[in-house]
Amino acid sequence: AVLIVAAGTGEFEAGISKNGQTREHALLAFTLGVKQLIVGVNKMDSTEPPYSETRFEEIKKEVSSYIKKIGYNPAAVAFVPISGWHGDNMLEVSAKMPWFKGWTVERKEGKVEGKCLIEALDAILPPTRPTDKALRLPLQDVYKIGGIGTVPVGRVETGVLKPGMVVT
Prior knowledge:
Blueprint: E1 2-6, H1 11-16, H2 21-31, E2 38-42, H3 53-70, E3 78-81, E4 103-107, E5 110-114, H4 117-122, E6 139-145, E7 149-154
Parallel strand pairs: 1-2, 2-3
Antiparallel strand pairs: 4-5, 6-7
């Protein structure tokens, strides 16, 4: 998951406050089983001064402290300073943040490094699915579609589901 945090003065503080959305979304991601996290520190163009290294480090420190409390390992989280509006550090390295030397993620599969958001996204490991186990497909919804019939909707948690397969 990508947790986007606003770097603007007051915006970050509101998000990280006791009932703030940043806290809520980080906790929700962890509770829902999201194992890999990327933190995008957005609106770096709105910091004082613009593209402030001090502000980025302050936000990184505070968010690291919080995500550690809820169960994430901050060493395994990429923190990327970005400006979505201007495209800084999104797809390619921005000249406006020469102080940013890149992010590093340390995990049991090894160390990964990069400089922009797309590289952090590319470094996410696909989750392993237990395909050798029995089929388990918790239903989310059931639709009755005229001319077609009953259509169950869900996500395969374990096992394999193939076209034409009979399930009971």
